[in-house]
Each structure stands twice: as C-alpha cells, then as structure tokens.
Specification:
Blueprint (H helix, E strand, L loop, with lengths): L2 H18 L16 E5 L7 H8 L5 E8 L6 E9 L3 H10 L3 E2 L2 E2 L1 E4 L7 H11 L4
Antiparallel strand pairs: 1-3, 1-6, 2-3, 4-5
Length: 133
C-alpha cells in the first residue's frame, strides 16, 4: 500500500475513535500495548540521531533510537525505530506525527508490533550494561 494511503487510513481510524469516544482498551492502538517501539519513515536523509531525538522527545522519554544507515556509506536510509520509556507515548507519537511534516517531508509513524534488535545492537547494549561502553 502506498505510504500516503497508509497515513490517511491511520488518520481516519484515529479521527473515528475520537468522534465516537472509543475506550482505550477498544482502540486500534490496544493491539500494540505490549510494544514501546514506533517506526518512523519518510525521514529526510540529512536528519541525525540527535535531530530525531529532539523531534520524538516531544511525546515522551526516548530510551532507544535506531536510525537505519547504509552499511557501506553510513548514510541514512530515511527511516528509524524509536522506543519510549512509557508505551503510551507511542500512541501520542503515532496520532500526532503520522502525516506531519518534518524537515519538509511528510513522515509516516506507526506502531511496531515486535521489534528485534540486531545482534550488534544487543552486544553494544550488553557492553554498556556491564560498564564497558
């Protein structure tokens, strides 16, 4: 499905829930209540991790940010995964950032059902936890 169509469909679902007063437990967001990660796509290639942290911290404390980069060139691929300390921040981020313009580009923000860290990320995280990084 076209990313702009996805954005519009998510915005319609959210608007419908607001208009009908849907309970949190019945919201389409409830399917993702186990995950504190979101996907952000359509990002400007010049945005850095620091830029994204500043943007996404508007809706909660960011505890993990993985800006996907090309292995060879190190350049951004234009999408990232962001984790919040509080899962409820993912609802705010998807509702408010999905379809928003950031650095002149319309971005797509969605819940992530099951984010898996790459092996290198797990090793880095383990090293920091052990006081080695």
């Amino acid at each position: 499905m076209n990313p702009l169509t996805q954005i519009k469909n998510i915005q319609k679902a959210t608007k419908r829930e607001i208009e009908t007063g849907t309970q949190d437990s019945a919201s389409w967001h409830a399917k993702y209540k186990h995950s504190a990660y979101i996907f952000a796509g359509g990002l400007d290639y010049d945005l850095t991790e620091g830029d994204l942290l500043a943007v996404f911290a508007q809706f909660g404390e960011v505890v993990d940010l993985n800006l996907i980069r090309d292995k060879d060139s190190g350049k951004s691929k234009g999408f990232a995964f962001v984790a919040y300390e509080d899962q409820r921040s993912t609802v705010l981020a998807t509702d408010n950032f999905n379809g928003a313009k950031v650095a002149g580009r319309t971005i797509r923000v969605e819940h992530v059902d099951n984010y898996k860290k790459r092996k290198a990320e797990v090793r880095e995280s383990d090293a920091r936890a052990a006081g080695g990084g």
